[in-house]
Amino acid sequence: MRRVTALCAAFGVAASAFAVAGPAQAGYYVIRWDNTGICQIWNEDLTYKPMQWPSNYKVVSKPVPTLSDAMAEQVKMRQQRHCTL
Fold first, then answer.
1. What is the pTM of this model?
2. Shortest CA distance to 28 belongs to which of 74, 62, 72, 64?
3. Rounded to whole angstroms, what are the CA distances from 4 to 9, 14, 32, 75?
């Protein structure tokens, strides 16, 4: 049982080292759906794009480095009435 615990602990330390060594800048941007006007934050690191059915989307912001920057951009667009939600 002690070996299993030690193995799990070693795996956890190794996994956290890989997480720290990864890229820190994800890159986010805001997209706006055509049929509803809802703005959504999208991550550039995702390997797929949003599905464009039954509506299309349009990128309405420049890429920003952090999620909090993207959220601030989305709030600003709501205040300017460019987004409904």
1. 0.63
2. 64
3. 9, 15, 49, 48
Specify the amino acid at residue 21. A
Q: Can you spell out the DSSP letters for 39-59?
A: EEEEETT-SSPPP-SSS-EEE
Say how many C-beta atoms besides its own lie within 10 A of residue 39's C-beta: 23
pLDDT tens sequence across 60-75: 999 999 999 999 999 9
* End-to-end CA separation in angstroms for the chain: 52
Return all residues near 58 (Cβ < 8 A) that are at least 6 apart.
31, 32, 34
What distance in Å separates the CA atoms of residue 45 and residue 48, rounded to the nearest whole number?
9
